[in-house]
Amino acid sequence: MVKEVFFFNELAYSSFPQDVARSLGYTVLSLPNSHFEPNKAHDFYHQYLEEHLHALEAGFDGIMLSEHHNSPHSMSPSSNLIASILAKITKRGKIVLLGNILPVTDNPLRLAEEIAMLDVISGGRIVAGFVRGGGVESLATNANPVHNRERYIEGHDLIIKAWTTPGPFRWEGKHFHYRVVNPWVLPMQKPHPPIWVPGVASPETIQWAAKHQYPYIALNTSLESTPSMWKLYNDAAAEEGYKTTQDNFGYLLKICVADTDEKAYEEGKNFYWQLGKTFGLIPRHWYRPPGHVARAAVASQPAIIRDTYGEVEYEQAQQIGQIITGSPDTVIKKLKHLVDVVDPALLILWAREGPMSHESAKRCLELLGQEVIPAIKEYRPSTVG
Fold first, then answer.
1. What's the CA gap between 270 and 286, in Å, rounded?
2. What CATH number was assigned to the domain covering residues 4-378?
3. How many of the other CB atoms lie within 10 Å of CB of 174?
4. Which of 66, 139, 194, 240 has its CA 20 to 30 A from that of 131?
5. Inter-CA distances, 18 with 22, 24, 32, 242, Å
6. Distance from first CA to last CA of the chain, Å, rounded?
7. pTM check: above 0.90
């Protein structure tokens, strides 16, 4: 049973010259930033913020925000900056940070302060998701991919201790060192804001989330492959001595709703706006540089990796449940099937992308909020799995 539904948008800069990217063979990392026009970005940012507000007014339970670097795919180098705006201009709805990329920061203690500040300003509405980030993020920030998981775990442990252990105290880790840990601003939520862990294919990340009893958010994985991720989480939870509920699971998917199936199908193609790819053209050694992804993940989850990184065509993406499009009635039917298969308590709808018009995006959010979300929240799934 779906309990909460959130809106997500990558905040794309869709005006870059795709012929240049095609000639170079990539749309990220080293695509010349001379093609960035601040005036266009200004308009995009304001449209996106208006759509965030519109989503909450339409009936969404909150907004999810992400962080990416060196890519027109996303103009969000800091989810916390967008969150600070939303914390002030909104009065309801969770602000979900999925999130701060721990391995690429040299100062996790500052992140602890920033997130605490956001939680206080928003009145306790922050979800503090932490992510490892993709290979491009490591390369863009000069972070060694080999140390990605180590820095992620240590950064997490430091932040949690900073929130829950009275200071001052000293921290001497492998990657981070502080003579004094004593953040003055602490979260409103106790012991700290909820923490969700998003992921795609890593068994280690799933098991780590289960160990800490953090909800795991599957990022647009195919319906066929997602139950195996749930099983891995359930098995790890059993080893820790507890039984999971659906509250431990969330799911993100691309979705487009319009007044007719035909219009929604055409609008849904905007998810493939970057030379026919969901995430653009990314050389394999950039999105998975040596050492960034464990061999176990590559060996055990090849289908998940293939399906998630946009290596399937638009029609196939529809068939495997990676993208859902249609009128409200059609989308409700498709989402009920999704709930029957994965039954997430937390549903994140990536409902706006690329060159989709502002008007179409707002109409999509209205139809989702007024018709689709109420129907899905009322639905009781049949046998799951």
1. 24
2. 3.20.20.30
3. 10
4. 240
5. 6, 10, 12, 50
6. 14
7. yes
pLDDT digit string, tens, across residues 76-122? 999 999 999 999 999 999 999 998 999 999 999 999 999 999 999 99
SS3 201: coil
Dist. CA 27–CA 327, nearest whole Å: 32
pLDDT more than 70, % of the chain: 95
Report, in angstroms and rounded to the nearest whole number, the Rg of the chain calculated over CA atoms. Answer: 20
CA distance 284 to 134: 11
Phi-psi region of 94 (alpha: psi -120 to 50; beta: other; left: phi over 0): beta
The residue length of the chain stands at 385
> Which residues are CB-neighbours of 11 under 8 A, at least 6 positions away?
44, 45, 48, 74, 75, 76, 82
Per residue in 289-314, pLDDT (tens digit) is 888 877 766 666 555 555 555 568 89
- For 191, other C-beta atoms within 10 Å of its C-beta total 9
Predicted pLDDT of residue 306? 53
- Structure token digits, residue 117: 């500040």
Amino acid type, 99: G
Rounded to 5 degrees, what are φ and ψ at 226? -65, -40
Residues 320, 226 contacting (CB under 8 angstroms)? no
What single DSSP character describes residue 248? G
Rounded to whole angstroms, how far apart are CA atoms 306 and 309? 6
Report the largest interatomic distance among the alpha carbons of the chain, rounded to a whole angstrom: 61
> Which two structure tokens, joined as six digits, stand for 18?
């795709």
- Cis peptide bond prior to 328, omega within 30° of 0: no
Q: In whole angstroms, what is the distance from residue 99 CA to residue 262 CA?
A: 34
The tens digit of pLDDT for each residue in 329-380 reads 999 999 999 999 999 999 999 999 999 999 999 999 999 999 999 999 999 9
Average pLDDT for 116-137: 96
Tell me the C-alpha distance between 381 and 187, whole Å.
36
- Which pairing describes strands 169-172 and 177-181: parallel, antiparallel, or unpaired? antiparallel
Helix ranges (DSSP H) in the chain: 18-24, 38-58, 79-89, 108-122, 135-140, 148-164, 203-211, 226-240, 261-268, 284-287, 295-300, 302-308, 314-319, 328-342, 358-367, 373-378
